[in-house]
Each structure stands twice: as structure tokens, then as C-alpha cells.
Design the sequence.
């Protein structure tokens, strides 16, 4: 408050009165108190003065020729530059002041002539302090609004970054997975090429026996079959990765088969899973279709599985990770659970909060589940909750509409 009073005493006050004696009296009273005072004798000068350099407070006589105080007040309130300046009306004791009108026009108070010095100073001080506080509140509000806007921008940037990061690991997954069938195919092809070379050499020198022809044909058949099977597998992988990658990068809405889609997503996690002893299965309704955002679902599933790998089995060992898909009329339920260490009750309420992590030292940012929560509630227009018991495991239950309107999603 002492700060407010200090600011208030350096305040700039506009005093409007057509009676010179009153004007003089008020200027003296307020100047003695340390205020900067600008006296003006009529409404027109009051308006131009207030617009030119908006004061912190206006003392405004009501009864003035040409333009009365009410009119000046109305005009000041209509101008965005001057509408927040507090106005204290001045009226003579014998005048019948229309108090309702004075307040409804935006006046904050009124004082009567002849002036009681103490009263005038007390009212001026009070309204200057109030105005000061209001200004500070306004500034705080603007700051808060800006912070909120910044937060929203950061959040969508984070979601974008997460999308890119999961695309990156998807690409790594593709390379890793395709390496195996392509490698197998290469071995089979070079074996075939070698055998053919020997076979051709025997043929050239006329040493070809019936038994070696038979052996060559067996090997050639076997190698061709291996090449075909592995190329076919590589082709399959490319198709399913392509689908998941396109969905993750574009986040387009389309109709998809939920169980099959989760299986495709899991393929991209094979490299990480292979480094563990965990098993990951997808069960439930084979026929369940959704018209929604498969890319978002795949990001959610990826995060849940990665969390089990990262947090659920601190002392190693093979866990059972499982997705189950089911349908209740127009809703899809996707349950995911692990049989790991579980989440202590005191943390359970915080896991979806941004930056909550128990793995900061291992590089956890605590954003995974926050992003999951946003994807489920905004993009997929559903709900997610978590049930967990220490020592038994953790379960996430997603309740999603089977068909969503494209309009509502971000
Ligand atoms: N399956 C789980 N089992 C045990 N604890 C879990 C499991 N999933 C999440 N948690 C807990 O919830 C916390 C928050 O998870 P979240 O995915 O938001 O962050 P993070 O995995 O720590 O970091 P980030 O995902 O940003 O790298 C984790 O730090 C962990 O304590
Ligand atoms: Mg995580």
C-alpha cells in the first residue's frame, strides 16, 4: 500500500471547474499534497486535455455552461484511451445531483462544494490507489494471457516434436526390420549364384553327372524359395510401415481395423522389444473398425509400450504386455496392461501432468503421458485412465468413440 500511496502522490490530476475560485482552491489543495495538477475551466478543454495526456484521475464539475460534466463523462467513457480514467464528480451542496446518473455514466465518486479538504484528499487518494491496483491487475492479466498463449504454442510444438521423434524411431525400426529379410535374401541369392557358377563350369567341361544336376536343382529350388519368401516379407514390412508412417506424419482421419493397426504399430517397436525378454500381444475383437485418427492411436500405443519397457521392469525379467480391443455399442475400449512394478498411489494422480517423471536422471522428460492424454482427449475425442497396483502391474483404459467428427479435432 505504501507503494500505491507513493505512486498516487506523483499522480497527474485533471481538475475541471468553470468557477475560478473553486479551481484555484482545488489546485492549491492538491498541489500542496504533491500531486501534479492541470486545471481547466470547461468541458471542451477537459476533453482535449484528457486525450492529449490521459491523467490518472479527473475531478469534474457537473454544472458547467455549454457542456456539462455528465456530457464530458459520457465522451470520456466512449473513448478507449480515456475510458478507464476514474472520474470524481463535483457538485454544489445546494444542487440536486443525480447520483444514479453520475454512477451509471461511470463516475466513481462525488464530492460537494464547499470543499472539506480532508474529505477531498481522502477520496482522491482512495481512487488513485484503486486505479493503481486496477492497472496492476490489468498488467498481470495481460501477462497471464500471454503466458497461456505461449503455453498453448509450446504444447502444440511439443506434440509436433513428439510426432517427429516417433517418426524417427519408426524409420530406425523400418531399417532394422527390413535388414533381416533383405540379408537372408542376399545370402540365398549369392549361394544360388555360386552354385550356378560351379554348375556352369561342370557343364562346360562336360563333367555334368545326373546326381550333380539333381543336387543343383534342389539347391536352386530351395534358394529361390528363400529369396521369394524374404522379399515377400520385406514387401509386407514396407507396406505396413508406410501406412503407420503416413498416419503418424499426416494424422489423417480414416477408417481402419483397430486390432490389425495395433499389430502394425507394434512391428515398429520390434527393435526395442528385441533387446528385452518381454512378450507383446494384441487380442480381442478382430472385426472392430474405427473412423478416427490411426496415427494418433499409434503414437499413444507406442508411448504406453515404451513406458512399460522403460519403467515397469526395473529389475529385468520378461514381462507380459498386452493390448485388448473391444466394442460397446458406438464406443471402442482399448485396454493396455503390463505385469510390471506398478505405479505407487501417490504418483498415480500425477502421471498425466506435464514434466512428471521418476526417470529424470535416465533422460525422461515426463511428457510422454501428457502427450498421450492430449492426443486421446483432443484428437481421438475420448478418455484415458490408469489403474495400477504396486507389484502387480499397470493398466491403461482408453474409451474412444468409434466414429468421430473431423470438425472437433485439432
Ligand atoms: N507402465 C508403467 N509402469 C510403471 N511406471 C510407469 C509406467 N508408465 C508410466 N509410469 C510412470 O509415469 C511417469 C510419467 O510417464 P511419462 O511417459 O509421462 O514420462 P517418462 O516416461 O518418465 O518420460 P518421457 O516419456 O517424456 O521420456 C514415469 O516417469 C513413470 O514413473
Ligand atoms: Mg514415457
Sequence:
Amino acid at each position: 500500500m505504501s507503494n500505491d500511496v507513493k505512486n498516487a502522490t506523483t499522480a497527474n490530476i485533471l481538475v475541471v471547474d468553470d468557477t475560478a475560485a473553486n479551481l484555484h482552491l482545488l489546485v492549491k489543495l492538491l498541489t500542496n499534497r504533491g500531486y501534479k495538477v492541470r486545471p481547466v475551466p470547461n468541458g471542451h478543454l477537459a476533453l482535449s486535455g484528457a486525450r492529449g495526456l490521459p491523467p490518472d484521475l479527473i475531478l469534474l464539475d457537473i454544472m458547467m455552461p455549454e457542456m456539462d460534466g455528465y456530457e464530458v463523462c459520457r465522451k470520456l467513457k466512449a473513448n478507449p484511451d480515456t475510458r478507464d480514467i476514474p472520474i470524481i464528480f463535483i457538485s454544489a451542496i445546494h444542487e440536486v445531483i443525480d447520483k444514479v446518473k453520475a454512477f451509471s455514466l461511470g463516475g466513481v465518486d462525488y464530492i460537494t462544494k464547499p470543499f472539506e479538504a480532508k474529505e477531498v484528499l481522502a477520496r482522491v487518494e482512495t481512487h488513485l490507489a484503486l486505479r493503481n491496483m486496477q492497472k496492476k491487475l490489468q498488467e498481470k492479466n495481460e501477462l497471464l494471457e500471454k503466458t497461456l498463449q505461449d503455453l498453448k504454442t509450446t504444447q502444440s510444438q511439443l506434440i509436433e516434436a513428439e510426432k517427429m521423434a516417433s517418426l524417427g524411431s519408426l524409420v530406425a525400426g523400418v531399417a532394422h526390420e527390413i535388414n533381416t529379410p533383405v540379408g537372408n535374401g542376399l545370402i540365398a541369392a549369392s549361394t544360388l549364384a555360386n552354385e550356378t557358377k560351379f554348375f556352369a563350369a561342370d557343364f562346360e567341361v562336360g563333367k555334368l553327372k545326373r546326381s550333380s544336376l539333381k543336387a543343383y536343382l534342389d539347391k536352386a529350388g530351395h534358394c529361390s524359395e528363400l529369396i521369394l519368401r524374404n522379399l515377400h516379407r520385406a514387401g509386407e514390412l514396407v507396406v505396413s510401415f508406410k501406412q503407420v508412417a503416413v498416419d503418424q506424419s499426416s494424422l489423417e482421419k480414416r477408417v481402419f481395423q483397430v486390432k490389425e493397426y495395433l499389430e502394425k504399430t507394434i512391428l515398429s517397436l520390434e527393435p526395442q522389444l528385441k533387446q528385452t525378454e518381454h512378450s507383446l500381444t494384441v487380442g480381442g475383437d478382430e472385426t472392430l473398425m474405427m473412423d478416427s485418427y490411426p496415427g494418433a492411436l499409434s503414437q499413444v500405443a507406442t508411448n504406453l509400450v515404451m513406458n512399460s519397457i522403460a519403467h515397469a521392469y526395473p529389475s529385468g525379467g520378461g514381462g507380459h504386455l498386452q493390448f485388448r480391443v473391444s466394442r460397446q455399442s458406438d464406443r471402442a475400449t482399448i485396454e493396455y496392461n503390463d505385469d510390471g512394478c506398478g505405479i505407487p498411489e501417490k504418483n498415480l494422480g500425477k502421471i498425466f501432468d506435464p514434466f512428471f517423471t521418476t526417470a529424470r536422471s535416465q533422460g525422461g522428460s515426463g511428457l510422454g503421458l501428457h502427450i498421450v492424454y492430449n492426443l486421446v482427449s483432443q484428437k481421438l475425442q475420448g478418455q484415458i485412465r490408469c489403474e495400477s497396483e504396486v507389484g502387480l502391474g499397470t493398466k491403461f483404459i482408453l474409451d474412444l468413440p468409434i466414429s468421430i467428427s473431423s470438425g472437433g479435432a485439432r
